[in-house]
């Protein structure tokens, strides 16, 4: 029973890792870089969700997601895009700087202390044969699944998805056939911002608190999940996030909570040695 409980709990957390990994994967697929300001943008979304919680669940989530998508685009245009044609590490370093600046602003405005996140979803638990399932967790996973499903359908079965895949596989060739590569890249940034915004507010809901530092863990695990699943592969990113969440929960059961992050890095190390492209290759 304890093992199944750990898998269920890990799946809830892993769904949020999957959402962050999906965001990183979207940007990597079109620009071959990562925006590490996502870690602070997760916190920004959580704070916006907390501030607008009195309006209800749907408005709070919508406000947080749209505001984060907008700020993600601004961060990209100011810090990342100007560095794309410079050294490979330049956009990553610039995004770290932008993230630290955002973290400082959030700390000044919202304060560094933890704040209780109001309940946006039903509370309580279901008990099934000794297994306890949080109602909040069910709601969080359901929202994540809907968002992921819509994203995958759009990027696989629409003209937008075709342009995205063309930019991902061969930007120069896509441009030759009329694909507006810069516009597709900006579109991937906005889509990633929507995913980051949703992950931020849902992380606050699941954890039950908000702070300017709430995105550090989910952001780090999102990067690991993307690499484990296969950089640029959205399905792989989602699978990697779920896998890491479950492995961490099981490790906490059998070892200790302090070993959770070590398990994630251990998995990444093994995958990079055995299959450097990740579990699923980019498509």
* SSE class: mainly alpha
Shape estimate: globular
Mean of residue pLDDT values: 91
SS strand fraction: under 5%
**Helix and strand sequence:** HHHHEEEHHHHEHHH
The neighbouring-strand order within the major sheet is 1-4
Low-confidence stretches: none
Helix percentage? over 70%
Tally the helices: 11
Q: What composes the largest sheet?
A: 2 strands, antiparallel
What is the distance, rounded to the nearest whole angstrom, between the alpha carbons of the first and last residues?
A: 38 Å
- Report the radius of gyration as a whole number of Å: 18 Å
Q: Tell me the number of strands.
A: 4
Characterize the structure shown.
The chain is mainly alpha-helical and 283 residues long. It is built from eleven helices and four strands, in the order H-H-H-H-E-E-E-H-H-H-H-E-H-H-H. A two-stranded antiparallel ribbon has the order 1-4.
Which features characterize this protein?
globular; two-stranded antiparallel ribbon; 11 helices; 4 strands; about 5% strand; mainly alpha; about 280 residues
Summary, kept brief:
With 283 residues, this protein is mainly α.
Q: Would you spell out the secondary-structure blueprint of this structure?
A:
Layout: H1 2-31, H2 38-51, H3 57-80, H4 90-110, E1 115-116, E2 125-128, E3 131-134, H5 135-157, H6 159-169, H7 171-176, H8 181-207, E4 209-210, H9 215-229, H10 234-254, H11 260-274
Antiparallel strand pairs: 1-4, 2-3
Helix pairs in contact: 1-5, 1-8, 1-9, 1-10, 2-3, 2-4, 2-8, 2-9, 3-4, 3-8, 5-6, 5-8, 6-8, 9-10, 9-11, 10-11
């Amino acid at each position: 029973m304890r093992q199944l409980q750990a898998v269920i709990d890990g799946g809830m957390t892993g769904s949020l890792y999957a959402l962050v990994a999906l965001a990183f994967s979207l940007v990597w697929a079109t620009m071959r870089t990562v925006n590490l300001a996502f870690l602070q943008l997760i916190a920004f979304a959580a704070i916006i969700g907390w501030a607008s919680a009195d309006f209800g669940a749907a408005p709070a989530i919508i406000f947080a997601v749209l505001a984060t998508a907008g700020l993600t685009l601004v961060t990209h245009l100011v810090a990342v895009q100007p560095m794309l044609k410079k050294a490979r590490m330049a956009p990553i370093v610039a995004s770290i700087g932008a993230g630290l600046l955002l973290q400082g602003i959030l700390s000044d405005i919202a304060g560094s202390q933890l704040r209780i996140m109001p309940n946006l979803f039903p509370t309580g638990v279901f008990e099934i044969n000794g297994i306890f399932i949080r109602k909040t967790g069910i709601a969080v996973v359901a929202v994540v699944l809907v968002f992921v499903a819509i994203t995958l359908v759009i990027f696989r079965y629409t003209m937008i998805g075709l342009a995205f895949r063309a930019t991902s596989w061969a930007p120069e060739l896509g441009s030759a056939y009329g694909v507006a590569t810069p516009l597709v890249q900006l579109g991937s940034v906005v889509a990633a911002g929507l995913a980051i915004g949703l992950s931020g507010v849902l992380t606050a809901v699941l954890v039950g608190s908000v702070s300017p530092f709430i995105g550090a863990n989910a952001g780090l695990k999102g990067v690991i999940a993307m690499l484990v699943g296969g950089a640029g592969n959205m399905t792989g990113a989602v699978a990697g996030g779920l896998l890491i969440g479950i492995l961490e929960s099981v490790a906490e059961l059998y070892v200790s909570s302090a070993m959770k992050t070590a398990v994630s890095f251990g998995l990444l190390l093994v995958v990079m040695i055995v299959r450097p492209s990740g579990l699923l290759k980019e498509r």
